[in-house]
Design brief:
By secondary structure, this protein is mainly alpha-helical. Helix content is 55%, strand content 5%.
Length: 206
């Protein structure tokens, strides 16, 4: 495992499971700060890469571990994870602490099965989940005709764009009148996105 074990992760499932693994198996130093090349070395020398997500999201650790040729053992992940990998054949999912320990022990004792899953995961990642693949996918989506129809201001005249900017900035100034920084600090983080609206507006209306 290479990742964040900062104060926010204390007394969490991540810290608890790392402690369980360290007490029973030979692991790397979880608390060490690794450089990018060292991260690759750790993963490539690992038989199993343990992953624990944050809020059930897909992490870079899954792609890094599989790309390095290690078996990735992860908690259940949402966000279409089953569409990225074939669960059980390319990555392995554990359900709880006991299941995690049992599966680590099982795959260490069954190297041929572990290596077969690791190779399948590596093949999938290198074939479909590199940065190049994601950039190509983003460019394809951004150039789609249906997406262009969602940006009508690109076809607007200069006067129409200036009028739209004035409308947006007027609403932003109204928000400034309602919020000050001290009060906003007590508001749910999702309600503080308005600080970024000027930049977003300039990009959308450009």
């Amino acid at each position: 495992f290479v990742g964040n074990i900062a104060h926010a992760h204390r007394k969490t499932a991540r810290q608890r499971r790392l402690a369980l693994l360290a007490a029973r198996f030979n692991t790397n130093d979880f608390y060490r700060q690794y450089t990018p090349p060292q991260v690759g070395e750790v993963y490539s020398q690992s038989r199993i890469v343990f992953n624990t997500s944050i809020a059930g999201d897909v992490t870079m650790r899954i792609f890094e571990g599989t790309a390095a040729g290690a078996l990735v053992l992860t908690d259940p992940v949402q966000n279409g994870f089953a569409e990225l990998f074939e669960l059980g054949a390319e990555v392995v999912v554990y359900q709880d602490d006991d299941d995690l320990l049992a599966k680590v022990h099982y795959y260490l004792e069954h190297p041929q099965e572990r290596e077969a899953i690791a190779r399948a995961g590596q093949t999938r990642t290198l074939a479909q989940h590199t940065y190049r693949h994601r950039v190509e996918q983003i460019l394809e989506i951004m150039s789609a005709p249906t997406l262009r129809q969602l940006a009508p201001m690109r076809k607007a005249s200069a006067d129409e764009r200036r009028a739209a900017r004035r409308t947006v900035y007027t609403h932003l100034h109204m928000l400034d009148a309602l919020f000050d920084e001290e009060k906003a600090a007590d508001v749910h983080p999702l309600l503080r996105f308005w600080h970024a609206l000027p930049c977003l507006a300039r990009r959308v209306l450009r």
